Structures are given as structure tokens and as C-alpha cells.
Amino acid sequence: MKRIKRRKNKLNGLLTLFLLVAFITTSLIYVKISNKKDSEQSTFNQTSDSAKANNDSMKTNNDSPSINDELLESILEAYPEKFKNILDNRDKYDVQILYTQINRNNDGTITFTKNGFNLDKNKYFYPASSVKLAATIVALDKLNNLNIPGLNKYTTLEVLSGRESESGEDEDFTAKNGKPSIAQYIKKVLVASDNDAFNRLYEFIGQEALNETLWNKGYKDILIRQRIGDGPMTEENRYTNPFVFYDSNGKVIYEQPLVYNSTEYTSLIPKENTLKGSMHEEDGDIIDGPHDFSESNYASIETLQELMKAVIFPQSVPESKRFNLKEDDIAFLKKYLSTLPRQCTYPSYDLPDNYAKFFMYGSTDKSIPSNIKIYNKIGNANGYLIDNAYINDTKNNIEFFLTAVVFSNEDEIFADSHFNEDKIGMPFLTELGNTIYKYERNGRVIKK
């Protein structure tokens, strides 16, 4: 009896152990399946000079569900000699920052962790040229959606004048063949922030199509209703030029008529938030009253970074937010987002490296080393400085997104003579970029 009882106890012990192992195995399988469901397969290829260019494919987890508001505050507070003025006057200088950490995990997944400082999509800042990235993306999206044989970003085009206020164009001496094309416009926008090139993209897409495309894809906090460099011209900006595209033999392959946007857009945020300052400049005179930006372009910091992410990591965004871009389009955008003026031909530019790279190098005359690749789009107008960047150190395997805006004004007077970008905005963006870069290089540990 004792022998039988011992055998039963032994069997019961083995059965309990078996059930425990089975439970743990089932749980692990469930977790693995759940993790697989929570991530999406990514098949993007980075540009050849990127540190991770040889990754054939990878899974990309969804972004963190919320934005961490504490990390950036702690980082900035650790360097009072650099950031105390900004910390003490964050609203005066309209500072907003979004820093997204990129984590490449051992299982091949990538996760993004967002960290914000003073973010508020209802707080207006003039986005200036930072919105030009959206136009380059949507222009390529439109070309691919047209799906016309022979029509692509390199196709020769002619811009016609549909109204007295509009100008036409059938030559572009900055291009190798002397002819305009969507590719040439995009190249000039991304390398040197060319206003005329952006305006041509705006005209090709059309005001309504540009905004509706962005909104329909989920980029809600953006409104582009102005050409850049020509003042508001609210009504005229609703009209966009006719275009004609030709094949290599001069045969017309696509014609686009004059387009008018019958929808009158109003500000996406409360109008009182678009009134800035206590005095402003008008026709050379300083007059009482705030500058009214209610009819100007608008974008939130989060949306600007989402658009950059849609180019750098296209498979990381939800399918509904992806644009109809070919692999060659993505490579083209990445190439010229990171091209320095001295590296460009057709056109060639006699401009410093920091001309359109504010983070890390904006306040210096140093050449940017070859291992530091900055894929970005800046903005600089009406006292506002913006940089929207993916920064990749290919030598030290560092990568992160950083987007920020700062207003360079001390006295609430909106006039060119009262803006002080060289003493306020540019040093701040330079130091911010360097500080976040060093934080990443130090293993994400704050070191003074």
C-alpha cells in the first residue's frame, strides 16, 4: 500500500509539472501571437548611406499610445546655461518640441517613443517653408494616381498662365535639359527651400486637392492655402495654373486646366489663437494691433513629424496614412532631403552646409561630417524658425526624429527689424539638436 501511495504521489507530481509546463508554453505562444498582431510588417529600404541600409525587412510596432511630457523637460533642465531662458519663457517664444526615439529590437521590430515639450496643436505658429515637404509628397502621389503611360516626375512640363495674376514657365535653366519637371521642382524645394519651385508644386496639385489628400489620409492638423513669398492673396491662391506634360517627342500626354477651389477654407484653430503680437508692420509702418495669421498656412508639430516619418519609414505608418509612392519616389525624396547645397548639381549652390540644416549646425560655420545625415525640412519667416528632421549618425548607429519651433522676438512687435533669429532661435535649435544627439550617444543618460 505504501509503495502504491508513493507511486500515486509521484504520478500526481509529474502530472502537475506537465500541466504547469503546458500552461507556460501556451502563454508564451499567446504573447508571441499578440505581439505579432500588434506590429506590422515593414519592407522599407533606407538610402545606401544609412547605417541600417542592409536591413532587408523588419516589423514595426505602433507608436507609443501617448506622448511623454517629462523627459524633454528633464533634459533641458539639466543644461540651464543653454536652456534656462527658453524654459522660463516657453510661451513667449512659442516653443514646441517633439523628440521621437527609435528602438530597433532584437526580434527585428522597431518601436517609436514620443517625447513632447509644450506641444499644443491649437497654439499657432507660422510654419513657413516647413509645409513644403507635404507638397513634394502629394505631387508624387498625384502623378502615380493619374497612372498615365509616360507621365512621371521626370516628364517635361509647361506651366501656363490661366489668369492675369499668374505666370507661366516653359524653361528651367537650373535643369540639365533646361526644361521644367516635377522632379526638378522637388529637388530645389528640398535642397534650398526654393519658393518658386514650391509654388509650382502647389499649382500642379491644386489648393483643394492638396489639402483634401492630406486630410483624407488622416493628416488633419495642416492647412496649406497660400503660395509662399507672394503675400496672402487669399482669393488668387484658390486659382491654380494650367499644366501641359510632353513626351520626349514633344507630344502632349497630359493636360490640366485652370483649377478653382470653390471651397473657402477657414482657420482650423480658433481665430484668436492666430492673432500674434501687440503691434505689426504693414506697408513699412508699425501699427497698433496684432498680426493676423487667420488666413495663412498652418501645421502642427505632430503633423509635420508624421509626414517626415511617412517618407523615412513608410511602412511604419498605418496603411490608411500611406501615400501612393513608388520605391524610386521614396529614394528620391530621401536623397534630396539629406543633400547639402555643396553636394547638389543642376542646380549648383554656393551656400553653406547649415543653410537649411538648423539642428546641430545652424549657428556654426562647420561642415557637416559625412556620417551625420540630416533628412529635414526647415522653415524661417515672420520670426519663426522650424526644423523637422530625421537625424542619422551612420558611424555610431544613432537615429531619432526631432521637430521644433521657436519664435525669435522680445517685444511683441511683428516686424522684420524686431526679429532676432541669430540670438534667440538659431542658437536654441543648434543646441537642442546637439543636446538630443549627445543624449542618444550617451545611451540615453543625461550627462552634464
Automatic annotation (TrEMBL):
Domain of life: Bacteria
Domain Beta-lactamase class A catalytic: 113-394
Pfam families named among the record's database cross-references: Beta-lactamase2
Region of interest (Disordered), ranges: 41-65
Listed Gene3D superfamilies: DD-peptidase/beta-lactamase superfamily
Stated name of the protein: Beta-lactamase class A catalytic domain-containing protein
Organism this protein belongs to: Clostridium punense
